[in-house]
Specification:
By secondary structure, the protein is of the alpha/beta class. The protein has 2 domains: 267 residues, Spore Coat Polysaccharide Biosynthesis Protein SpsA, Chain A; 61 residues, no CATH class. Helices cover 27% and strands 29% of the residues. It has 10 helices and 19 strands. A 5-stranded mixed barrel has the order 6-9-7-8-12. A 4-stranded mixed sheet has the order 14-16-18-19, with helices on one face. A hairpin with a 2-residue loop joins β10 and β11.
């Protein structure tokens, strides 16, 4: 059995005004009829393969998690008193699992179109994790993307996997356009999707090796936790003293046995309005409409309105979002700057 660990939260800034701090991206129906969080739960719903999920979220989002999780049997929710990035969050989940458990760590705010490919990749990641590898599920790069981190594949790994598995030679930060083009031409680079497969004991051992204070405080916080139904609440004072850090920096870049499985699963992190536009269904002109709108002589335009009718004429590569009394008009190239608008942070 693979143990899903779903990381759920967010500041609600990158897809403002639709996304807000009180209802961030995971809880929105952006690419279908269900929210991204609900879609994440559905991907790991096969109980012959996946154990009931553990969701790690903040106190401010517990009610949303409970409402959207519905009647998932065996669900456990670890409630972070404060956000401390992904490494401490994963450590909390690992602390309540048997040593031989294999975790599949999944962000809850991504879009994955090919579920069968995701399942195959998760199974291969679990195979490697059960053999002591700290495994990233990467995404085959299909364009010279500058908004994602990259993973360079190293030597092949002889393992009973259905897909090609490799050691990780190195992680690379978000590149500029020229370097991203080189990565794509090289063919050995994949995008870092933030999806990982770990043995619970192996992860905690690696964390203790490279970030001993973090590992110790996470274990202490869980040892002093309080239970309230499906909710598990780590000790606030202890957990709050942990320094925030991502799992990439704290563990993966330091690990002695790090592996990657490269998947082609129609993945997007929906990291901004441009990424959402690209993930949605388009017409022949590349246009996408949600709500009421008319587009004339437009190309690659997305309109997302929750009420007012929107009319756009003669524009290319533009995104229009209407949410209540807030209106956003942004070029696709400027979509990554939405979070810098005055008043957006904490909105």
């Amino acid at each position: 059995m693979i143990q899903p660990v779903i990381l759920c939260g967010g500041s609600g800034t990158r897809l403002w005004p639709r996304s807000r701090a009180s209802r961030p991206k995971p809880f929105l129906a952006l690419t279908g009829e269900t929210s991204l969080f609900e879609a994440t739960l559905a991907r790991v719903s096969d109980r012959e393969m996946f154990a009931p999920p553990i969701v790690v979220t903040g106190q401010q989002h517990v009610e949303l998690v409970l409402a959207q999780a519905g009647d998932v049997d065996g669900l456990r929710i670890v409630v972070e008193p404060v956000g401390r990035n992904t490494a401490p969050a994963i450590a909390l989940a690992a602390c309540i699992l048997p040593e031989d458990a294999v975790m599949l760590v999944c962000p809850s705010d991504h879009h994955i179109a090919d579920i069968a490919e995701f399942i195959r990749s998760a199974r291969d990641g679990a195979v490697l994790a059960s053999d002591g590898w700290l495994t990233a599920i990467g995404v085959k790069a299909s364009r010279p993307e500058t908004g994602y981190g990259y993973i360079l594949e190293g030597e092949g790994i002889a393992a009973p996997c259905k897909k090609s598995c490799h050691t990780i030679e190195r992680f690379v930060e978000k590149p500029d356009a020229a370097l991203a083009a080189e990565f794509l031409a090289d063919g050995r680079y994949c995008w870092n999707a933030g999806i990982f497969a770990f043995g619970a004991a192996n992860f905690l051992a690696e964390l203790a090796r490279h970030r001993p204070d973090m590992a110790e405080m996470a274990q202490q916080a869980m040892a002093a936790s309080a239970a309230d139904g499906v909710l598990i609440k780590p000790d606030t004072a202890i957990f709050s003293s942990i320094e925030p850090e991502s799992v990439d920096y704290a563990v993966m870049e330091q690990a002695r046995r790090a592996a990657v499985v490269a998947a082609d699963m129609g993945w997007s992190d929906i990291g901004n309005w441009r990424a959402l536009r690209d993930a949605r269904v388009h017409d022949a002109n590349g246009n996408s409409i949600k709500g009421s709108a008319d587009l004339v002589d437009c190309h690659d335009v997305m309109v997302d309105s929750d009420g007012p009718h929107v009319s756009v004429i003669g524009l290319d590569d533009v995104i229009v979002v209407v949410d209540g009394d807030e209106i956003l008009v942004v070029s696709a190239s400027g979509a990554q700057k939405v979070g810098k608008l005055p008043g957006v942070t904490g909105a």
